[in-house]
Amino acid sequence: MQRIALLLVATLALLSPSAPAAAPAERPNVVFFSFDDLNDWINPMGYRQALTPNLDRLAERGVTFQNAHTPATYCAPARSAIFTGRYATTTGCYRAQVYFRENPEWVPLQLSFQRAGYRTFGTGKLFHHREGFIDQRGWDEFHVRNESQKLEGWPLNSWTEDTPLPEPFPASRYNQIKFKDNYENIPGGLFLEYGPIPNEQEPAMADTQRIDWACSILAQEHDAPFFLGVGIYAPHFPNYAPQKYFDLYQVEEIVLPPYKEGDLDDLPEKMRKQKIGRTKAHHARLEAWGLLEEAVLGYLACVTYADAMLGRVLDAIENGPHADNTAIVIWSDHGYHHGEKGDWGKHTLWERTSNVPFIWAGPGIAQGQEVAASVSLIDMYPTFVDLCGLAQDEGLEGISLAGVLRNPATAQDRDVFLPYLSPNGFAVINQQWRYIHYEDGSEELYHVQRDPHEWTNLAELPEYAPIKKQLHASAPQKRVPPGIDAPQLRLVLDGTAYSWKTK
Taking 90 as the threshold, does the pLDDT of residue 327 lie above it? Predict the structure, then answer.
């Protein structure tokens, strides 16, 4: 496919982490673009099966971090960490806690931009999609598809009665076989659901509408620098995308990820039992019913649809009045398993959950470069402090990547921390190792350079005890207990505002 260069003129020399913050006159506009459940199956990260021409186009104009990791293992805690710049071990947001209720004194990213003189705009799944999870502070405008949503706690749901669904429903043969005609009892929403939407109905899709609005903001003149957050739901299940994206793939040509028989045998006992149960529930059924390739195809079609939505934003930047001073960063809240280690989903401390796309482009950012050093999405907040002149916050737990964006050759590998679902569960990751520590004290250790699929757990071998000790010591020693989960709270609506109260 033809790759159209994104015209982001390099007029701003990005500062090194130790340099003073950017002066107001130099500050770039920022487009903060998130995907949901997008793993490393994109062409700029070496995966050749997905068609991602716009991610390719962005990578050609910027810096791609090949070893970037989520700060949490699923949506709600990952986004809490990104917007606060703090891990769950500091915020207590390990699961479905509401960070701005738990820690109202901390300044979230969008409010920091607003206080620095930026206009702030947001749309789509930047926060957890449930009602009551949008942090309403700091936005000049946050767009939702329907005005009625503003009276319902601002849910960010994407598949409702006013958005198109495939016919028949459910569309995936997995759900058709599993539930037969008892479709109202499909658990977990629309898990492992995939299928095409008629092309003519694409304008009614939620993500398409969000991109429409974002492009309208980019087309406007602004008298101050702006921060535009754009969150799309794709490629999260259900894997619905217009028919034209499904037509780009043929099921007989789909190459499955590598699976290994007995892959779970060397896991700690508790985790092995959990994952054997999950394998039986999903992967074994897909395999027995001959649907593995179909399910992967549905995800890839959604990846290409998501890529097309990014392409529209890149076009809007290029053709708008701010092409010469707009930076963009793309990221995904976490990755996704497609049968690797028997799993379909996230919620793991393994590579398929943690490794995510992370690409920056814009003024002063190196072009067409890759960084192999380990980084975390929690590094975004301190990077913006340097690039955009935001107020310094000594509590931020990431490190600024500003100097690396200017000169990728200066990147140095480090241990990256990944919290799990409770204070004593976590992973520590670098270019060579992945160390996993579970709540019960059990462990996994993988030499990821020699064993990229994480098939051989080395944790029980005595010669690796010093490595485990060293990696364990790099994790935060102080880890706060979990806060109150949203299900234990009551959402109180007050017009278009809301608050959370204890039940």
Answer: yes
Helices (H), 63-108: 75-84, 88-91, 99-102
Three-class DSSP category at 30: strand
Report CA-CA distances (Å) from 105 to 92, 101, 312: 14, 9, 37
Strands 358-361 and 141-143: unpaired
CA nearest neighbour of 375 among 425, 327, 414: 414
- Sign for the CA dihedral angle at 279, 282, 287, 288 comes to positive
Parallel, antiparallel, or unpaired for β 29-35 and 326-332? parallel
Which amino acid type is present at position 50? A
Chain centroid to CA 331: how far?
5
DSSP H or E segment with residue 307: helix 292-319
- Whole-angstrom distance, CA of residue 104 vs CA of residue 107: 8
Paired tokens of 3:
């790759």
Residue 108: alpha-carbon gap to chain centroid: 17
Q: Let me know: does 233 contact 38? Beta carbons within 8 Å.
A: no
Give the integer Cα–Cα distance in Å for 227 and 142: 12
Backbone angles phi, psi at 84, to 5 degrees: -95, -20
- pLDDT tens digits along 129-180: 999 999 999 999 999 999 999 999 999 889 888 899 999 989 999 999 999 8
One-letter-per-residue 3-state SS of 197-209: ECHHHHHHCHHHH
Residue whose structure tokens are 């770039």: 28
CA distance 29 to 222: 10
% residues pLDDT > 70 (the chain) = 95
Active-site amino acid positions: 75, 128
Q: Give the residue carrying structure tokens 């200066």.
A: 410
In whole angstroms, how far apart are CA 304 and each of 125, 299, 391?
18, 9, 37
